[in-house]
Amino acid sequence: MRPVTIVIACHTPERPVGRAVASVLEGSGEHAEVLVVAHNRPAEEIRGALRPEHRQATRIIEHRDAFRSASGPFNAGIRAATTPFVAIMGSDDELAPGAVASWLTVQERTGAEFVITRLALGRAGRGVPTPAVRMHRGGLVDLARDRLAYRSAPLGLMSRAMLERTGAALVEGATVGGDVGMVTELMATVPTAYDRYGPPYVIGEDAGDRVTYVVRPMTEQLGFFPDLLQAPWAARLSRTARAAIGTKLLRIHVFGAVFYRQDEEIWTAEERESLAAITADVLDRAPSCERPLSRADRRLLDACLDPAVPAAELMAAARDRRRHGRPATLLPRELTRALHREAPLRFMAASLAVQQLPRLRRG
Length: 363
Description:
This protein is about 40% helix and about 10% strand. By secondary structure, it is α/β, with parallel strands linked by helices. It has 2 domains: about 5-215, Spore Coat Polysaccharide Biosynthesis Protein SpsA, Chain A; about 220-360, no CATH class.
């Protein structure tokens, strides 16, 4: 029996699911079988979107719920798997040839229950520089020291026994962030390794209906924060680990949500109050998480916390923090934090190293 099941969720045959299935069967078929979950669609309709030579080799099950989220079908596929390991995969995405074999090699060497895959965007050569792990680590990785919190989806190899033991699962019905709590829990609480040199998981760029990019009310956009920050496992983490999670939530999710709302009409009094309350809760539950942030980030943070700051100033601060290379984006407000692992200088250097090291090793 092949040791890995790749679970692919698909809600329409118009997605390039045939390409996704082909990448697994043709590039990792020796080690992985494919389970496609037809989300609110007949299984045979999805099967018809597969390449003829792959239709009989692909198991397809149906999952019906009232949500647009992929969390439900992913959970259903994981429950239906019988192999020792599982992995989830978007129907727009691909696995570079040999990816699963590389994950298994890392798992055998380290004993990890979760192996984080390398990511690439659009094609295998365009590496994604997260997580910005330490370069000298060849074994298990650490949530805070290896900046793992910046990985927001549980992509890679997961032990099915571990998932059953921990009960870790995607949040069903969540339109945004339904995977963040699960992946953060795994990286924080179970033995985790990073496949730093292996073939990547390639994120597709040709889907026009990804729900992630839709602008929603702030309470929905960041509605996954409480489930993450208030979870029992999170409360048991060290102060350092909680701060690392908080820094990432601010830098990626809060600041990103503001940046993509460049219209003053969006910023009603209710939205500003929601933004302030959500941001304040992060600071309360992850003490010190703001201290490594750049001066430009802190200016935006101050605006997020104060609904009286004009919307134009809030939006300008979100744009300014992305004008990289200026002192305001390179140095934290507290200069004693300039060399903190989450501060811009070290963070950017580590990100560049992660992006470049695999190609340097091949060279």
